[in-house]
Amino acid sequence: MDWGVNPLSEYLVEAEGLAKRFGDFVALQPLDVKVKAGEFFGVFGPNGA
Asked: How many CB atoms lie within 10 A of CB 5?
Protein backbone atom coordinates (compact mmCIF):
# COMPACT_ATOMS: atom_id res chain seq x y z
CA MET A 1 0.00 0.00 0.00
CA ASP A 2 1.34 3.45 -0.92
CA TRP A 3 0.90 5.79 2.07
CA GLY A 4 2.29 8.74 0.12
CA VAL A 5 5.24 9.00 2.49
CA ASN A 6 8.03 11.32 1.50
CA PRO A 7 11.02 9.03 0.91
CA LEU A 8 13.23 11.61 2.62
CA SER A 9 11.18 11.39 5.84
CA GLU A 10 10.16 8.35 7.87
CA TYR A 11 7.09 10.17 9.26
CA LEU A 12 3.63 10.42 7.75
CA VAL A 13 2.53 13.21 10.14
CA GLU A 14 4.71 15.78 11.91
CA ALA A 15 3.42 18.61 14.10
CA GLU A 16 5.44 21.02 16.23
CA GLY A 17 4.03 23.15 19.03
CA LEU A 18 0.57 21.57 18.82
CA ALA A 19 -1.61 23.20 21.53
CA LYS A 20 -5.23 24.01 22.39
CA ARG A 21 -6.64 26.63 24.73
CA PHE A 22 -10.16 27.65 25.69
CA GLY A 23 -9.70 31.15 27.07
CA ASP A 24 -7.44 30.77 30.12
CA PHE A 25 -7.91 26.98 30.23
CA VAL A 26 -5.04 25.06 28.64
CA ALA A 27 -6.51 21.85 27.23
CA LEU A 28 -3.29 20.72 25.52
CA GLN A 29 0.18 21.93 26.41
CA PRO A 30 2.43 22.57 23.38
CA LEU A 31 3.58 19.22 22.10
CA ASP A 32 5.64 17.87 19.22
CA VAL A 33 4.23 14.81 17.45
CA LYS A 34 5.75 12.47 14.86
CA VAL A 35 3.67 9.56 13.59
CA LYS A 36 5.00 6.90 11.24
CA ALA A 37 2.90 5.20 8.58
CA GLY A 38 0.84 2.43 10.18
CA GLU A 39 0.96 3.95 13.69
CA PHE A 40 -2.02 5.33 15.61
CA PHE A 41 -1.95 8.48 17.75
CA GLY A 42 -4.68 10.07 19.82
CA VAL A 43 -5.16 12.71 22.49
CA PHE A 44 -7.92 12.02 25.01
CA GLY A 45 -9.29 14.39 27.63
CA PRO A 46 -10.97 13.73 30.98
CA ASN A 47 -14.35 13.22 29.27
CA GLY A 48 -12.91 10.79 26.74
CA ALA A 49 -13.08 13.26 23.85
From this structure: 12
